[in-house]
Automatic annotation (TrEMBL):
Protein name from the UniProt record: 1,2-phenylacetyl-CoA epoxidase subunit A
Keywords for this protein: Oxidoreductase
Broadest EC class assigned to this enzyme: oxidoreductase
Record bears the keyword Oxidoreductase: yes
Length: 311
């Protein structure tokens, strides 16, 4: 069975839910897919915060659609995790108990409207860099979910870029607001790719299994290379004085990331960790009646079907 699994992965074919897979492969997928799902769900909060305050009806409806897409991504991903034999309720309970990880980026605040532009451009931009290769992940349900997620993320990234472009070409105050938001989100978005390769305990095995196709540092570099020409079009700057083109490497060199900050955020000490979990817990409690009603409705429907079959 192991040989068959290895051959399937080597031949770039997909592992499907009913196929035999090593226990560690299954566990890695549950870990990554559930963290990814939690990130989408918690990730609705920084932007959801601005739905009522978006500056026009058009901006409100666009933002509402984007946040709704994120809920959808969370749902596909929980479904993909369930194909591995875990229960979505257990995953949700782990998140509510503060035991599950989700992306560090969603523990930062969104004090101005420009932060919504910066999230779209930088956070969704980083998400695309990271997730496009996941469309070729060896596990079928995860790879297929990523195809649709990436299409939607591309749209999100462009709407963020457009918000920043408008602000950067507006009044002096608007341009300043856009620049400050980019300054706030740039470094945390580089941290989204995870620790440096030398400190990434899961990367080597995940790449061997073809879950991950590129290392954390490779994807981070690709993202920096993409941001530099785009920030020029915006008429803004990236907050890194060490950023410079390296003709020998064919890439931009960039400054040192503050990994202490990253580890603090992972430990729960970021600016908004406590607020994000408290908000999620309240939303879950507020939804109790919906879950109860759905169970009652399903039971009624099942009883009716049973009656009809008996008749
Ligand atoms: N934040 O060995 P490593 C979105 C953890 S949402 C927190 O490199 P791996 C969006 C890592 O889990 C999209 N934790 O791990 C939504 C591991 O801990 P455990 C979010 C992080 O898995 C709303 C430890 O550090 N994207 O787009 O090989 C609005 C060692 O790391 C982080 C995904 O979830 C982090 N940044 O690689 C807008 C992508 N980085 O589990 C947008 C899917 C690392 O051993 N995930 N850790 O305790 C992945 O691609 C990979 O899991 C990672 C990490 C590249 C993130």
């Amino acid at each position: 069975m192991q040989a068959r699994f290895d051959a399937t992965v080597a031949a770039e074919q997909r592992i499907e839910p009913r196929d035999w897979m090593p226990e560690a492969y299954r566990k890695t997928l549950v870990r990554q897919i559930s963290q990814h799902a939690h990130s989408e769900i918690i990730g609705m909060q920084p932007e959801g915060n601005w739905i009522t305050r978006a500056p026009s009806l058009k901006r409100k409806s666009i933002l509402m659609a984007k946040v709704q897409d994120e809920a959808g991504h969370g749902l596909y991903l929980y479904s993909a995790a369930e194909t591995l034999g875990v229960d979505r309720q257990d995953l949700t309970e782990q998140l509510l108990a503060g035991k599950a990880k989700y992306s560090s980026i969603f523990n930062y605040p969104t004090p101005t409207w420009a932060d919504i532009g910066a999230i779209g451009w930088l956070v969704d931009g980083a998400a695309i860099c990271n997730q496009v290769p996941l469309c070729r992940a060896s596990y079928g349900p995860y790879a297929r979910a990523m195809v649709r997620v990436c299409k939607e993320e591309s749209f999100h990234q462009r709407q963020g870029f457009e918000i920043l472009y408008e602000l950067a070409h507006g009044t002096e105050a608007q341009k300043k607001m856009a620049q400050e938001a980019v300054d706030r989100w740039y470094w945390p978005s580089l941290m989204m790719f995870g620790p440096p390769d030398a400190d990434s305990p899961n990367s080597a095995q995940s790449m061997q299994w073809k879950i991950k196709r590129f290392s954390n540092d490779e994807l981070r570099q690709r993202f920096v290379d993409m941001c530099v020409p785009q920030v020029e079009v915006l008429g803004l700057t990236l907050p890194d004085p060490e950023l410079s083109w390296n003709p020998d490497r064919g890439h931009y060199d960039f400054g040192e990331i503050d990994w202490t900050e990253f580890h603090q955020v992972l430990k729960g000490n970021g600016p908004c960790n406590a607020q994000r979990i408290a908000h999620r817990r309240k939303a879950h409690q507020d939804g109790d009646w919906v879950r109860e009603a759905a169970v009652a409705h399903a039971a009624k429907k099942a009883a009716r079907t049973k009656q009809a079959v008996a008749a």
